[in-house]
Amino acid sequence: MSNLLVKKIFIVDDDEDIHDIINLIFEEGHYLIKGILSADDLEGAIADFLPDIILLDIRIGKHDGRDICNKLKHNPKTAHLPIILLSALNMDNLGCSPTAIIEKPFDIMDLQQKVKKLLDKN
């Protein structure tokens, strides 16, 4: 597999099971997946991994994914990254502008299609 074909998916979710599921969903594709369970050093982790897309939970411990989304979208270094916000919470009046939203529990095919569509744009 050529490195040029590999797309990087970055997971920000405090639920290890979500990390495992997403790894299983995308294991057959040309993806490199990294995840973090806490948003404490998010900027550093993103800078180290250089993802092509971010899957962001709306609740990450003491952090709010909506605030994180806004911070990433207003940072020139990360503003270009597509962000898919994942949540079991009500998605009305988000107060942020993710690239896409997927409600938990998510449909596997829906997640795959949205990720592929967003990565194909890059």
TrEMBL record:
Q: Residues where 4-aspartylphosphate occurs?
A: D57
Superkingdom as given in the UniProt entry: Bacteria
**Keywords linked to the UniProt accession:** Phosphoprotein
Q: Which GO terms describe its biological process?
A: phosphorelay signal transduction system
UniProt xrefs under Gene3D superfamilies: 3.40.50.2300
- SMART domains linked: REC
Listed Pfam families = Response_reg
Q: Where is the Response regulatory domain?
A: 8-119
InterPro entries this protein is in? Answer: Bact_response_regulator (IPR050595), CheY-like_superfamily (IPR011006), Sig_transdc_resp-reg_receiver (IPR001789)
Q: What is this protein called?
A: Response regulatory domain-containing protein
Q: Which organism is it from?
A: Pedobacter ginsenosidimutans
The root-end lineage is: Bacteria, Pseudomonadati, Bacteroidota, Sphingobacteriia, Sphingobacteriales
